[in-house]
Write a structure and sequence with these properties.
alpha/beta, Rossmann fold, 2 domains, six-stranded mixed beta sheet, 10 helices, binds 2'-monophosphoadenosine-5'-diphosphate
Length: 287
């Protein structure tokens, strides 16, 4: 096959979402396929909610290798799939589907991708970490589950609505010690926390002057991680850096969730560095 040319053997992948026009997944995965010389291609499918079921049947009918799933379909797609992996079940959401001979399995690589990014970019030993997660939504669920699987001995979950924090803590407590809190209780536990992770949308563009945690709680030696990658450096991360804490941004999570999906589909190690390079390049060129 001539390099880069599609033919009758090409395996097709894609991402389902609404809207989808700004997704960086196609450039990232196509770059990865090219790097490994795979006869595969990845595109973006604009799928409205009323067409989601039809789109999933289309994966089977057309023999796609698999898809990523993004907003607003991550939860709604679940009943249409044949199997749901345990991590996706706990997260309550699917972001990756693998098609094995017409049998569709849903995974959630957001949590695994986040933890791989955190470990590789900070070198932290999670088995001795005491973690505070801010937020108790879908993103927090996936992250908390994977941190528990990695052997984090204690996870605090603080949320604006403390009931949701308690509910999530009860689920995660099956895997490791997990305690739910209201935002006003953070001061009681902050002295023992070694990693803070923001999973809320506070600080995301355009609200770049907001932060989910008072700078009074930040100090040298703390790792401060933000799932947000727009902006690349949130106010939380700026304040963390200013007081000597170690900042960790959300772009790595995007790259590694893609890498984990790529590995599920192809069975080959993802070429992380070229994937990161092309996404960075595309973010720099967006203006
Ligand atoms: P996601 O799937 O991205 O996690 P989500 O399930 O809607 O999205 O969850 C959003 C999270 O951000 C929640 O923890 C939410 O807190 P509530 O449960 O109290 O709603 C949190 N969040 C969103 N906006 C917030 C704000 N302005 N202040 C504090 N927390 C906020």
């Amino acid at each position: 096959m001539k390099k880069g040319l599609l033919n009758s053997q090409t395996v097709l992948y894609g991402v389902l979402g609404d809207p989808i026009g700004h997704s960086r997944s196609p450039i990232m995965h196509n770059r990865a396929f090219r790097e490994l010389g795979l006869n595969a291609a990845y595109t973006a499918f604009h799928v409205s909610a009323d067409r989601l079921h039809g789109a999933v049947e289309g994966i089977r009918a057309l023999g796609l290798g698999g898809v990523n799933v993004t907003i607003p379909h991550k939860v709604e797609i679940m009943p249409y799939l044949d199997h749901i992996d345990e991590g996706a079940r706990v997260a309550g959401a699917v972001n990756t589907v693998v098609n094995r001979g017409g049998v569709l399995t849903g995974y959630n690589t957001d949590g695994i991708g986040y933890v791989r990014s955190l470990k590789e970019e900070t070198g932290v030993d999670l088995t001795t970490a005491r973690v505070l997660i801010l937020g108790a939504g879908g993103a927090a669920r996936g992250v908390a589950y994977e941190l528990a699987r990695e052997g984090v001995p204690c996870i605090y979950i603080a949320n604006r609505t403390s009931k949701r924090a308690n509910e999530l803590a009860a689920i995660i407590d099956k895997y490791t010690e997990a305690i739910g809190l209201g935002m006003d209780e953070i001061g009681d536990i902050m002295h023992e926390v070694t990693i803070v992770i923001n999973t809320t949308s506070v600080g995301m563009s355009p609200n770049v002057n907001e932060t989910p945690l008072s700078a009074d709680y930040l100090h040298r030696g703390l790792i401060v991680s933000d799932l947000i990658y727009n902006p690349r450096v949130t106010k939380l991360l700026q304040e963390a850096e200013a007081c000597g804490a170690r900042p960790h941004g959300g772009l790595g999570m995007f790259i590694f969730q893609g890498a984990c999906a790529f590995e599920l589909w192809t069975g080959k190690p993802a070429p992380i560095e070229v994937m990161r390079e092309i996404v960075l390049e595309s973010l720099q060129n967006r203006g």
